[in-house]
Amino acid sequence: MTLQKRKKLFLKIALFCFLAFLFLSKIIFTNEINTIDKNIYEGIIALKNDCLTLCMKIITSLSSSFVILPLTFLLLFFFKEKKQKAGIICNVGGIVLLNQILKRILKRNRPNICPLLAASGYSFPSGHAMVSVAFYGFLTLLLSKKVSSKKVKHFLVIGTISLIILIGFSRIYLGVHYASDVLAGYLCAICYLYLFNKAYQTFSLKKNCIKLIYSFKYAFTGILSAFKTERNMKIHVSIMCLVILFGVVLKISTLEWMICIFCFALVIGSEMMNTAIEKIVDIAMPEKNEKAKLAKDIAAGSVLVCAIASLLIGLLLFLPKLFAIL
């Protein structure tokens, strides 16, 4: 299979997993999926014995924070390139964050049975399943680039897939997750791993960091230049400071602060855009021209509209509080 065909295949798999995850998320609270989960659990728990329980507890720990965090720390010493180190850290942090966000959105409680292992938090999707796919999957991708033997690469892939399946199986066996939780974790993590690996391959740590630093430098230079050269910008900033002072004195709420911050950004941002348009028009049309004048007037008018809207919002926020004090 050519590289291009392989890329298309991986894309199709990722899209299928994404659609399957959305479908599963939609039906998790239906009786049908609960019945399927119950039947799968009863079939697995029929295998229960002390030796298997001990093995499942060991296997499930391989995707716990007590193992993943020390492994991550050790891998930072094993891999020498800064890009690889950054990729490992970002991969673990990203999948954990995504899992916690999804759990808090979907809010499915854990199985109402007698678990063989203590677990807290929401159930869907399985965090252990997601972390196992993302962490061990990405580690396999990094290691496969270090070896040239196809047999070793195949062994790595088969071993990783087997470990991931066993971790998911252990979560169901121990009674801390439904089968649908584990399946959803796999589907979501496959999509995540595909996107993360694409971003990792195209990312150049040194080049992108330099670009990022310079982009901030240019942005701050633009803000300072606008403040130094534009009279209206100084007026806007002075009004902003006055509003902040009133907000502190009148003890406005968090939501009201958010509204004020949005108004600050709207007015100052539009004023900076107006300045940029004026500079561009002056460069493109140094002599007097009616169309150039119209472009400047429209840009200035947009600033006025934003300023009037912000003024009205400010009056609606602060006048009732001032009248209450008086």
SSE inventory with pairings:
Blueprint: H1 3-27, H2 31-45, H3 50-61, H4 65-78, H5 82-106, H6 127-144, H7 150-173, H8 179-202, H9 205-229, H10 231-250, H11 254-284, H12 290-325
Helix pairs in contact: 1-8, 3-7, 4-5, 5-6, 5-8, 6-7, 6-8, 9-10, 10-11, 10-12, 11-12
Description:
The structure is a single chain. By secondary structure, this protein is mostly helical. The protein has 2 domains: 194 residues, Vanadium-containing Chloroperoxidase, domain 1 (Up-down Bundle), CATH 1.20.144; 117 residues, Helix Hairpins. 83% of the residues lie in helices and 0% in strands. The protein is built from 12 helices and no strands. It is elongated, with a radius of gyration of 28 Å.
* Unreliable sequence segments: none
Report the oligomer: single chain
Using the CA coordinates, give the radius of gyration.
28 Å
Helix content: over 70%
Judged by helices, strands and strand pairing, the structural class is mainly alpha
Percentage of residues in strands: under 5%
Care to count the β-strands?
A: 0
- Provide mean pLDDT, rounded: 84
- CATH T-level fold name of the largest domain: Vanadium-containing Chloroperoxidase, domain 1
Q: Distance N terminus to C terminus?
A: 79 Å
The largest β sheet comes out as:
none
CATH architecture of the largest domain, by name, is Up-down Bundle
Instruction: Spell the H/E element sequence.
Output: HHHHHHHHHHHH
Shape: elongated
Tell me the domain tally.
2
What is the CATH C level class of the largest domain, in words? Mainly Alpha
